[in-house]
Amino acid sequence: MGGNTITHALGAISEHPLILVIIPLLLMLATGIVVWRIMRLAVKKQYEEIRQAKDEAERANTAKSRFLANISHEIRTPINTIMGMNEMALREDATGVPKGYFMSMMNYSLDIRNASESLLSIINDILDISKVESGKMHLVEQEYDTQDMLRSIVSMIRMRSTEKELIFDVVIDELLPKRLFGDAGKIKQIVLNLLTNALKYTDKGGFALHVSMDEREDDMCKIRFSVKDTGIGVKKENLDKLFTAYERFDEVKNSGIQGTGLGLNISRKFAQLMGGDLTCKSAYGRGSEFIFIVNQKIMDKSPVGVFREHDEGTASGPYVPLFVAPDADVLVVDDTPMNLNVIKGLLKPTRVYVTTAKSGEECLEKIKETRFNVVLLDHFMPGMDGVETVARIRESYPDLPVYALTANTTVDNDFYVSKGFDGYLTKPIDSRALERTIMENLPPEIIKKPSKEYAVEDMKEIPPDMRWIYDTEDLVVEQGIKNAGGVSNYIFALNLFLDTIDENAKIIRDSYGHGDIRLYTIKVHALKSSARIIGALGLSELAAAVENAGNKEDSGFIDEHHEKLLSDYEAYKDKLSRLHPAPAKDKELISGKKLQDAYEALSMVVPQMDYNSVEMILNGLNEYELPPQDDEKVRALSKMLKSFDWDGMEALIRQ
Q1: Measuring CA to CA, how many Å separate 236 from each of 228, 233, 284, 393?
Q2: Percent of the chain at pLDDT above 90?
Q3: pLDDT-based confidence at 61, cuts 50/70/90?
Q4: Got the DSSP string for 451-485?
Q5: Cα separation of 238 and 241, whole Å?
Q6: How much is the pLDDT for 259?
């Protein structure tokens, strides 16, 4: 009965072909719906995962930016102290300072400056790439002097190329417009990075900077910067990766070269931000050429003419402030005592009166007590920070000039202006920027030009009676003047170098003989710096090579070059002998009483280690003709004084 029913039903279906079509379609539709729902759920899940990943990436990027802002402040703040204090040390008056001590301090300070500038450059690279990636990097366009901008670039590279004994050619198109409008800071950073790379990766030959105007239309021009070197070059397969962040090639070959691997990536992004481009052509083993092209607006179409590396109208020499204002009152607010000391020290030459505060709360109290011309306010402080403090200041003093002090370079001027500041100064503090900021906010009637006592501290050229120095073998006088910071400092450095040859050579010779490589290397390092300061570049280069061998404990290289180093060093006794002319023959013979009085005075001041008094007494004895035995004794005392051998002097006086 059941079987008949099924058979009957199948027969009925077979008699309706349409049903045979509909059923498979329904089955397919049902399958499609199931598949669609499964795919929809999968896509929805995948979308949700992507959204979560995007949110996590954005949170990570925000955290990274926050971290970089914090680490920027934490690192740049101590660097500000290092560079600021070191700048003050370099500015100190050397009058009356023991020569040997002063030379050592100068060498140490120059090394500190070089190392801190390198560290700051690395930090700036990391912060710049972060700002570029986050879209916070903006152009800061302004009018600038073409020749001044190029001169500042060349001067920063010239000394380093000379130290490395590389040829550095500079070819500037004389038809370049005299004044342009654009982001000179970023252009300078790009070109400096290209030149620094050329310097680092070139061991023989040299490199060149060519600047030309490729096109000019109405008030716009296309400027081409070309940096070509004879260095190691780049392999063809690495050219595409050259401008990638953090990429470095030939790690083994370039293991001694420092850097972040960010410079070229940042430079290309800067170029593109300005509507320009940065490209490279290279032959591996033969050198590279980097070409940076950018459009600039012409402000003064007069040609720059012949490029001069040095501004002939600018006097060199000891530090001279931009202004003097004894009646100006400046308030500096920072929770770090060292930062307060740095700014006070940097402003000392201007003679402005500096009041300090360590917190936002103390700042508000000080403002109530005194009418300040300018307030310099640290951004990050415990308790009431700079932003909160300036908001409170604006409630009662809307027109008081207030500038933020910050080590955070991830924010720009617009941020600080929006918070109520008049602008900001970055740490490490640039002394010139600091002075300009204060001067711009002072009433004209209290600003004074630096008096003659500042302006005439240095000579503009070597005195006529010392022109023989230009003919001295193995001495590059122009480079020495630049390294020493002016003619007066150069003459002082020459005398100091000559006066310390005997003692330093003895220490180098003795430490070599005793196998004390550490002391030997330290003294050779000092010689490297001292020789560089006076322009004895060949001696400096040899000392650098021997120092490097000492650091590597390469005794073979030291043994091979030790005698030449000493002979080249001691040869400067003869080369510079005219600095100490022979004593006049018509000196008055010293009386027995004066000589005895001098010895008695020495016997009192030597045990007290009173350097200035001993030097004054010995200089007084040199004004007279002394008996041969006493003349020899005074010369010995002078040498001992330079090496701070107080025990030796005391023993000699007792004889």
Answers
A1: 17, 9, 8, 60
A2: 17
A3: low
A4: PHHHHTSS-SS--GGGGGGGG-TT--HHHHHHHHT
A5: 5
A6: 42
Distance of CA 396 to the CA centre of its chain: 40
From CA 328, how far away is CA 574, in angstroms rounded? 52
How many helical (H) and strand (E) elements, i.e. helices and strands, does the chain have?
A: 22, 12
How many other CB atoms are found less than 10 A from the CB of residue 560? Answer: 12
Residue 406 has φ and ψ, to the nearest 5°, of -145, 145
Q: What is the pLDDT of residues 422-463, one digit of tens each?
A: 998 877 677 788 999 999 999 999 998 876 554 434 466 788
Per DSSP, the residues of 159-176 read HHHHHTT-EEEEEE-TTS
Q: How far apart are the first and last CA of the chain?
A: 148
Distance, in Å, from the CA atom of 105 to the CA atom of 222, rounded to the nearest integer, reads 47
Residue 300 neighbours by CB under 8 Å, 6+ apart: 177, 178, 179
Identify which of 241-255, 399-413, 623-637 has the greatest average pLDDT: 623-637
- Distance of alpha carbon 650 from the chain centroid: 45
* Cβ within 8 Å of residue 272, ≥6 positions away: none
Residues 6+ apart with CB under 8 A from 239: 280, 282
Tokens standing for 342? 């740095």
Strand ranges in 119-163 using DSSP code E only, listed in sequence order: 142-145
Residues counted in the chain: 655
Let me know: does 617 contact 604? Beta carbons within 8 Å.
Answer: no
Asked if pLDDT for residue 409 goes beyond 60, the answer is no
* Pairing of β 353-357 and β 287-303: unpaired
Q: What are phi and psi of 628, to 5 degrees?
A: -50, -45
Tokens encoding 429:
């503090």
Strand partners, 170: 209
Burial-class residue 654 by CB neighbours within 10 Å (0-12, 13-18, 19+): exposed
Residue 489: partners with Cβ closer than 8 Å, 6 or more residues away: 317, 318, 458
Q: Which long-range contacts (CB under 8 A, 24 or more apart) does 214-222 make?
A: 214/293, 216/298, 219/297, 219/298, 220/295, 220/296, 220/297, 220/298, 221/177, 221/180, 221/295, 221/296, 221/298, 222/293, 222/294, 222/295
Reading phi first (left if > 0) and then psi (alpha if -120 to 50, else beta), residue 486 is in left
Instruction: With beta carbons less than 8 A apart as the criterion, state whether 606 and 579 touch.
Output: no
Q: Which two tokens stand for residue 154?
A: 């060349």
**From start to end of 242-315, where are the E strands?**
277-283, 287-303
Q: How do residues 119-144 score in pLDDT, each as one tens digit?
A: 776 676 666 666 666 566 677 788 88
Q: Give yes or no for residue 367 having a pLDDT over 90.
A: yes
> What b-and-e string marks burial along 519-548, b requiring 16 or more CB atoms within 10 Å of the CB?
bbbbbbbbbbbbbbbbbbbebbbbbbbbbb
